[in-house]
Every structure is written in structure tokens, then in C-alpha cells.
Write a structure and sequence with these properties.
By secondary structure, the protein is an alpha+beta fold. The protein contains seven helices and five strands; from the N terminus they run αβαβααβαβαβα. Strands 1, 2, 3, 4 and 5 form a five-stranded antiparallel sheet that branches. The chain is globular, with a radius of gyration of 18 Å. The protein binds flavin mononucleotide.
């Protein structure tokens, strides 16, 4: 017989991100961030390749990234509204963790599986933070896919990409429930 963990299941059935723009200080301490990273690193990883790494971005680093958004956005003709939104994403944040997909050469594990694992890390990180009572939100935005931005701002190699920025902080309000998928539409049961 299975051994249920009702509180873990209840958490998974009710979990909900807290929009980054509603987060404020205080932010998780160094030890709490380490707990969040420990949980995130406990993510399925085919072949134990560890094809991801973390960059903890504190306030001054986030302001530096905000400035870089403006610099790169204006030289690459990104629309002004998109520059302003992306700038604010970093400038208003107090703490965020960049999850870097850092694939390795493997004869056995295809690139896409390694990138999936990086995405799974992002969700594990959000969930760990939420379970600890922190607000958390997985964001991307155009800059996270801009090779110059991630090279200059995050020191990424040419083969690395940003799986997400996980914003962390204190929630100021609980967002309304988000409509969830109609399982009957996306699920097929195959009986034979
Ligand atoms: C890869 C990825 C990137 C995302 N980027 C953004 C983003 O830039 N802005 C945004 O508002 N939501 C973004 N989201 C959506 C939120 O992280 C989140 O899925 C949504 O707020 C619902 O969260 P919940 O299911 O925990 O309630 C992104 C989600 C994923 C998976």
C-alpha cells in the first residue's frame, strides 16, 4: 500500500505563484536561500549530468541588470515599452535566482532532456520557496533570451541559456486562483 503524505499533496494541489511585482522585502536569508537551492538541486537529472547552475542576484546586481536591459534594449531596437517592463522586472526586485541551463556533451542524454531538467529545477525552486512561506515567481522576458544580455550580465557561455529568473520575497497579497487546465481535454487514457 502507498504511504500518503497529505500535507505535501495538499501543497501540490493548491500551490500558487505570487506575482513578482507584488513581492517586497524581507527576502530569504542566506541559509534559507541555501535550503531553496538544495531542494531545487534535488531535481530529476538523467545521467547525473548537473546541466544547470544558479546565480543568486542580490539588490545591486539586479540594478546592474536593469541598467544593462536599457543599454542593450536601446542599441538593439527593442520596443520602448518592452525595455521599460524588463527594466522594472529587475529594478523592482530585491532577490532573484537565475537558473542557467548549462548542457554538457553526452552520448546518452539529448540536449532537450537536459533543458527539461533545468525547467524542472525552476519549478522545484518556486515550490520550495512557497513551501517555506516565501512568495516566488518564475519569470523570463526578452532579455533572458538575448545572448548579449546573458553573456554580459550573467557571464553565460555560448552554449548556456536562461531557464528562468526565480523572484523571491515577501508576499503582499494572495492572488486570485488562476483557471487550471481542463484535464479531460488534455488527457488521454489508453486502455489497450
Ligand atoms: C518558462 C516560463 C517563463 C515565464 N515567464 C513569465 C514572465 O516573464 N512573466 C509572467 O508574468 N509570467 C511568466 N511565467 C508564468 C508564471 O511563472 C506562472 O506560471 C504563472 O504566474 C502561474 O503560476 P502558478 O501556476 O504558480 O499559479 C513564466 C512561466 C514559465 C514556465
Amino acid at each position: 500500500m502507498p504511504t500518503p503524505n497529505p500535507s505535501a499533496l495538499e501543497f501540490l494541489l493548491t500551490r500558487r505563484s505570487r506575482p513578482a511585482k507584488t513581492l517586497t522585502g524581507p527576502v530569504p536569508s542566506h541559509d534559507e536561500v541555501m535550503t531553496i537551492l538544495t531542494a531545487a538541486a534535488r531535481t530529476p537529472d538523467h545521467g547525473k549530468l548537473e546541466p544547470w547552475r544558479f546565480i543568486v542576484l542580490e539588490k545591486a546586481a539586479l540594478q546592474r541588470l536593469a541598467n544593462l536591459v536599457t543599454e542593450i534594449g536601446s542599441t538593439t531596437n527593442v520596443e520602448p515599452e518592452k525595455i521599460t517592463k524588463m527594466h522594472g522586472q529587475f529594478a523592482k526586485a530585491d532577490l532573484a535566482i537565475a537558473v542557467i541551463s548549462s548542457p554538457v556533451d553526452s552520448p546518452k542524454v539529448p540536449l532537450i532532456e537536459q533543458q527539461h531538467s533545468a525547467g524542472a529545477v525552476c519549478l522545484a525552486m518556486v515550490n520550495a520557496a512557497l513551501a517555506m512561506g516565501w512568495g516566488a515567481n518564475w519569470l523570463s522576458g526578452w532579455a533572458s533570451h538575448d545572448p548579449d544580455f546573458i553573456r554580459q550580465g550573467l557571464d553565460c557561455d555560448a552554449n548556456e541559456t536562461v531557464a528562468g529568473f526565480i523572484h523571491l520575497g515577501t508576499e503582499t497579497n494572495i492572488p486570485p486562483e488562476r483557471p487550471r487546465p481542463d484535464l479531460s481535454r488534455i488527457t488521454t487514457w489508453v486502455k489497450s
